[in-house]
Amino acid sequence: MTTAYPIGKPGTPWQEADKKQWLAAQVIKRSYQQEVETKILALADEYDVEQYGELNYGENEYKLYAVKSRDFSDNKPTILVTGGVHGYETSGVHGAIEFIKSQGKHYEAEFNIVVLPCISPWGYETINRWNPDAIDPNRSFYADSPAAESKQAMAYVAKFDDLLCHVDLHETTDTDNSEFRPALAARDGVSHDNWNIPDGFYLVGHTQKPQYSFQTAIIKEVEKVTHIAPADEDGRLIGVPIEQFGVINYDGTKLGLCMGMTNAEYVTTTEVYPDSPSANDEICVQGQVASVVGALNYIKSMDD
After folding, report:
1. Given phi > 0 = left and psi -120 to 50 = alpha, else beta, which region is 205?
2. What residues does the Peptidase M14 domain cover (predicted)?
3. pTM of the entire structure?
4. Which one, out of 31, 45, 166, 180, has a CA that is 20 to 30 A from the CA of 86?
5. pLDDT (tens digit, 9 = 90+) per residue, 159-186?
């Protein structure tokens, strides 16, 4: 299915004027400072809250934060949780915060915990997949990244050389088909295929290190909170063949995905579906928390 987009000429990649036209149409719809930053700073009583970077977009300035468990030790593996790489994916941001707030203390004896709750605050405020330069941060985790969001997150995470696990929290939404995929097709001057949106939670593993049992453990934990997306009639999710129930694989490194930015042995990207009639905001947040809990419980079980 080909979907027209109101910016640019069909079949022609966007020029700078097109990108400026797109940016001019974006508006602030919610507050990063009020909804996210205040919650992160409130964690400072029990965790180390570090500012690892800053974004300056016109009149808008955003501080970028990491939250760390305090009892860091070389004798413990380090666990990374990231949210808000795509700022519009709300439960990824609030799920990351809720995990460290409600569950972090249960795991800090076994793990060093690092959480980057909102990598793309401008995207959070404007409910966008891209940054103001019409760049997708979750295709930009590579050397000399053109996305400031990705570049600063990578620079911070690079100082942790003992990462064992990375859980990257995302959503798949109906606006992926109604807005973001048509915009992507228009920007790149290509046709747009309208994929089926899976009704339910699923995971994206890494083709280079799929860790089948690890992904299974996360699915089983999330099932306690929300339903898992069934494959379509072709045995696929978002056009990709399933690896197992609720799991597909991407080459996260080749594609420049956030989950591919480290050498962690256990990695996954979550995909919650907030537009499901069977879900709500709280279910989505708790589904994200369950994803991290399932991941850490699996790793703990490996040492038992």
Report:
1. beta
2. 28-304
3. 0.97
4. 45
5. 998 899 999 999 999 999 999 999 999 9
Domain contains 6: no
Would residue 80 count as lying in a domain?
Answer: yes
CA distances from 108 to 14, 15, 101, 161, 279 (A): 47, 48, 12, 18, 30
Compute and round to an integer the Cα radius of gyration of the chain: 19
Q: Is 4 within a domain?
A: no
From CA 286, how far away is CA 119, in angstroms rounded? 20
Show the domain range for 261.
16-303
Torsion, Cα 168 253 150 6, to 10 degrees, reads -90
* Geometric angle at alpha carbon 36, from 267 and 187, rounded to 5°: 65
What's the rounded Cα separation, in Å, for the pair 203 and 171? Answer: 10
Domain count, the chain: 1
Residue 3's pLDDT is what?
A: 56
Q: Looking at residue 4, what is its pLDDT?
A: 79
Q: What is the mean pLDDT of the chain?
A: 96
pLDDT digits (tens, 9 = 90+) for 108-166: 999 999 999 999 999 999 999 999 999 999 999 999 999 999 999 999 999 998 899 99
Q: How far is CA 106 from its chain centroid? A: 23
Q: Which two tokens stand for residue 299?
A: 């790793």
CATH code of residue 60: 3.40.630.10
Q: Which helix (H) or strand (E) holds 98?
A: helix 90-102
Residue type, 257: L
Helix (H, G, I), strand (E, B) or coil at 78: strand
Answer whether 266's CB lies under 8 Å from 211's CB: yes
For the chain, what is the total number of helices (H) and then of strands (E)? Answer: 11, 10
